[in-house]
Amino acid sequence: MKRIIFSGLMLMSFFFGAGNLIYPPLAGLNAGSEFLSASSGFTLTAVVIPFLTILAVALSGDSALSLAGRVGKVYGLIFTVIIILSIGPLFGIPRVANVSLDIGIKPLLDASNSQGSISPAGLFYILIFFFISFILSLYGDKLVDTIGKYLSPALVIFTLALVVVYAFTDNVKEVGEVGKEYVSGAFFKGAIDGYGTLDAIAAVAFAGLIVNALRPSPDTPKSVVFSGVIKAGFIACALLAVIYFGLAYVGNVSANSGKTTGADILVYVSQQSFGAAGQLVFAIIVFLACLTTAVGLLKTLSTYSRNLFGLLTERQWLILYTVFSAVLSVRGLDSVLKTSVPMIYLTYPITIVLVIVTLFNKWTKDRAWIYFWTALLVTPVAFADAFRIFSDNYFGRSIDLIGAVRDYIPLANTDFSWVTPFIVAVVIGALFPKKSVNNLLLGDKDAELRRKKQRAEEEFEEVLP
To answer: How does it sit in the membrane (predicted)?
Structure first.
């Protein structure tokens, strides 16, 4: 039981990073009186789906390639590259750098101007952050492991303390109006907000590490490991749900603060709860947690890229990821989050459907066929949703690749337009096995061979005297 509890805490630390702190408070703030519904949706995609992803990867192999590769080698490779870029230099790493800036440094000095772009002081901080991250990625294995061992519990304890103390402070608390996007579908909007944590995508990339950590020895039966993952996952999910719910609560009752971002809400709440000294301690913990997260991502992705692609040495991959992440980080947190949204709309639905199909793999007779149809129908819709967001963010107008068809897709108005194509894909794959479709389109090859043989025999008999 001790191993299970420890594994559950370790699994939670994999999911709960400092970068995820900013999402629940903002979701809680915007949800208003629809708080419970929005929080439930957030918990589904930020807690439950990542846990199921761990189980799915444990069943399929140990990597993103083993999960998506069931569709096809090319599809699996493209999916893996997108996952690496999402949790790495395009979003994941720049996010932790900017969260540490906005929560740890910005309150202490003028690191951002009113438009949210990086000031000279903020730029200097970003450069120092990535220089330290690079050096620790090369030489600081033991130091990072030691710090990380204590930082995750410290971050969790301080976050829970923050929620409890703020809940019982005497300051006036106020629930704001329900945000426009939450009025007609708070649960679905909360689920979309949960996408931002990237936990399901990160679970695809790092599930192999987690599963191996839960394996006592190489000879341990797969069923024992899988059982351990389930038990540890329940512990991790319960703790994560409590933390995310608490953070969403403090955002929900902070409408009178005038804050409009998750980072600003956390700074405000920490100051209200613990004063300047407490806010400083919180800032230090967040900074160190973000630093160790960045180092872990840089090291893991560099090693993974070397093993998967070759081409460059691990150090060269590390340099490439560090420089690219630093360049994207100087745009500021708002720009980083803006860039991430289209990528999240593309990768999260695909990840979810692959996970579901994999979990039901045991009960599907023509498995590869269902994977094929799932990818064929869901990927274009997810891409259309992503491009719609991308064009709106960068071209100033929303370009919908599926146009009027969207009006006839259930749940399309909640950004869950991929659900219906997924259901259709599963039905097609289950009711029309690949063999029957081939027979319908191409004819039964065995029957055709028999007919040819029969005709040949008849012709042979005709020429006999």
So the answer is: Multi-pass membrane protein
- Determine the distance from the C-alpha atom of residue 264 to the mean position of all C-alpha atoms in its chain, rounded to a whole number: 23
Contacts (Cβ under 8 Å, ≥6 apart) of 321: 88, 89, 93, 298, 301, 302, 305
Look at the alpha carbons of 307, 313, 314, 319 in this order and tell me if their dihedral is positive or negative.
Answer: negative
First and final CA of the chain: distance in angstroms? Answer: 86
Residue found by looking up tokens 């999960």 in the block: 67
Q: Which two tokens stand for residue 116?
A: 């949210």
The domains found in the chain, sorted by start residue, are 2-348 (1.20.1740.10)
Q: How far apart are CA 115 and CA 340, in angstroms?
A: 19
Q: Are the beta carbons of 296 and 147 closer than 8 angstroms?
A: no
DSSP 33: G
- Structure tokens, 41: 């949706």
Render pLDDT for 329-374 as a digit per residue (tens, 0 to 9): 888 888 888 888 888 999 999 999 988 888 887 666 556 678 888 8
Report the predicted TM-score, pTM, of the whole model to 2 decimal places.
Answer: 0.82
Provide the b/e sequence for 285-321 (b: ≥16 CB within 10 Å).
bbbbbbbbbbbbbbbbbbebbbeeeeeeebeebbbeb
User: Which DSSP symbol is given to 112?
Assistant: B
Say if CB 349 and CB 383 are below 8 A apart.
no
